[in-house]
Design goal:
The complex is a heterodimer of chains A (about 325) and B (about 525). Chain A is built from 12 helices and 2 strands, in the order H-H-H-H-E-H-H-H-H-E-H-H-H-H. With about 325 residues, chain A is mostly helical. Chain A has a two-stranded antiparallel ribbon with strand order 1-2. The N and C termini of chain A lie far apart (about 55 Å). Chain B has about 525 residues and is of the alpha/beta class. Chain B is about 35% helix and about 25% strand. The longest helix of chain B has 16 residues. Classes of the chains: A mainly alpha (about 325), B alpha/beta (about 525). The structure holds adenosine-5'-triphosphate and magnesium ion.
Amino acid sequence: METIIIDGLSYALPLFIIAIGGIYSERSGIINLALEGLLGFGAFTGGLFVALLGKYFTHAGWPIYLSFLVAAIGGGIFALLHALLTIKFKANQVISGVVVNIVSVALTGFLTSQINASVFDQPSNRFLLSVLPRYTIPVLSDIPVIGAIFKNVYPFSFMIVVLFIIFWYIFRHSRYGMHLRACGDNPQAADAAGINVYRTRFWAVVISGALAGIGGMSFAYSISTNFSPAVYMGAGYLAIAALIFGNWNIMPTLFACLIFGFARSGAYQLMRELALPSSFSDLAMTIPYVLTLLLLIFFSKTNKAPRALGEIYDKSKR
Amino acid sequence: MEEARVRMKTDEYIVEMKNITKRFPGVVANDDVSISIKKGEVFAILGENGAGKSTLMSMLFGMYEPDAGEIFVRGEKVKIDSPNEAVRLDIGMVHQHFKLVENYTVSESIVLGIEPIKHLLGVIPYVDIKSANKAVQELSQRYGLEIEPTKKIEDLQVYARQRVEILKMLYREAEILIFDEPTAVLTPQEIDYLLGIIEKLRESGKTIILITHKLEEIKRVADRCAILNRGKLVDVLDVETTSTAEMARLMVGRDVLMEVDKPKAQFGEEVLIVENLFVEDMNHFAVVKDVSFSVRRGEIFAIAGVSGNGQVEVADAISGMLPIKSGKVSLNGRDITDLPVKERTDAGISYIPEDRQSMGLILDLSLAENLVLKSYHDAPYSRGEILNKDAFLQHAKEMIEAYDIRSGGGATGMVRQMSGGNQQKAIVGREIELGSDLMIFVQPTRGLDIGAITGIRERMIEQRAAGKAILLISLELDEIMAMADTIGVMYSGEMQKITSADDITSEEVGEYMMGVKHA
Ligand SMILES: Nc1ncnc2c1ncn2[C@@H]1O[C@H](COP(=O)(O)OP(=O)(O)OP(=O)(O)O)[C@@H](O)[C@H]1O
Ligand SMILES: [Mg+2]
């Protein structure tokens, strides 16, 4: 039970921060299928940063934290591609998202090999990261069952909880959040109220890239302790499913992410308990996705996408 | 009232538009137009559909920039290149088609863009919805515009959405208020209320620009009236000293008959028979209760009623847009109660829906395509699976001629770019040309100019003479009285009375409509 909760949370929280990014983009009216590519590119820049620092400094503690910042910047910069294509050049948002994903996989794979060969003189398609310390909060972790929430916690989990509160607040209560939601519902109305629709959407997409980058970096640390093409394991798509299931609202999406996280860790635990060979773990991996599908079928009938989602905004239309 | 007029009106011009010209591809929407508006007056703008009224005001509100000409506000030359700039100059506008964020509350929509900000712990900013609610409440009381600040926009009816738009302007402390056909979407009672509000606003010193097609409204509230014809300014009149007939003549450029010639009816067999119809709305609330009537060939059957008493639902149920709970609808003896929409159309139903933008037209298709929206799969518009675009265009040319549809882009222009009234003419034309045995007209003349109204009414009479059965649903008693052979009055989902138009006065119809009189 403990492992299910611990592993479930350490998967659900990065997924959640990626989904929050997706919500920002989609509630502003821009479909974001690019989350997968954005999280990958963010993890790549973070991984590269750690690798470069490792070459010139011995591994100290602080690059770990800085690497998340760098991953956010990397994800945000890569998101400019999606923002430019969809907002400035008014490209179809679905196509743009798919393009960003493809470019991300190809570009990071190529760059990782090239940089490893030329800078580090070793042929490899990954950047090694250090093993993250994990923290256990005294007292709270002694509570029966739910105490597991506070056991063996990754540092990024704390960070994500803080970011979640900040971005939830911005989304619900700030002026920018209000403008953003207006742009996704009726951009003409937002424009008439004096809001710059292009700028609002632009920043929403950049934010989604930054948050996806942080999520991607978290996965790189927690799942494989390195950056490799393995970070592209579908978390971006799962985050989209979670936010749809959460009806494009942050709180219900948290709930969806937790379900996915626990479904995944529960499945692994089951494999372990039944002592099944590791080849079955591939099958176990599909459980969260199958679950997604079922949940979406049964619970999302009444869900309503933002009204202007996918609508290319053109000021001159009336 | 008269005193107020004199008191508030000064001779100082608050807005001057000089020699304004605006061209769109294929059309000069405004051609060297100059108007000057005095502070504190109600200034009406009258003109045919497509005359350029909305365009002229859109420029004052910064949505378009003029190709030539100058704008002065309070004597100063200004360049209004965005609605923001207009708002800074205290100009506000209620558009012909509302612009509201559906999932916001009333007060959120009103403060959007200039939200009141408070600080959490003195540092973290947040939008203070509570004080927004309070401010909206106060404004709504001050001007008598009743509204509930915490209601969601998507749950509001048209008239309430319009109030939100008006409050939006007032919250921004606009001094110059532009209303683009505000009454076209309202019921007569709501119009009365709105005109009262406009009078109140002018008493409090606001300057009001009112675009409307209804001469009696101009007579009631306006001080002066500018008349546009095909982009050119014809005249600016003093309303008090000009007759409505004179205004109409100037607007159309010739004498207009406001009444149509209606020969005696020749009824044939029954085309539409509705028996014991029950319809429920989305929330399973009974909106049509046990309604029965029939429409014969050569008959105009008009359903009168105050908005929201089930008339539109009757039309929707007959045309297949709403499911029928129980009862029977038959067309030419055939039971069509459970047929899908497309098969009903083929069985012989034309339908002009109430909401032209969402149900009647596809705004991003061309005029020619919209005109064959219901018949493109038949010859000559397609052969097998191949569409014949030349036939589309040929047809569109004939329709533009026949229904006086004015489109800057011609047959291939996008419908979105046509003026509101011309969009309406396109739908009406398309539905009549289907040549169906049963024609359902819901508010067919909404948003049309007087000339165009007469034109559409003449067409209806023509169809009646050709032996079509016509079901007319209108909120305007005048329209019902002018057109109907038989009148049915609905109140609260029930048919109160069905009678020959000759046997009832408009006062009596009004009484049935209000539910005071029962059959
Ligand atoms: N964005 C646009 N692009 C192209 N043409 C346009 C555009 N806006 C308006 N027009 C054209 O300019 C002319 C004037 O249109 P406008 O909407 O000002 O008319 P209107 O007087 O408001 O008519 P109505 O009474 O029907 O609302 C019309 O011929 C219309 O097709
Ligand atoms: Mg107009």
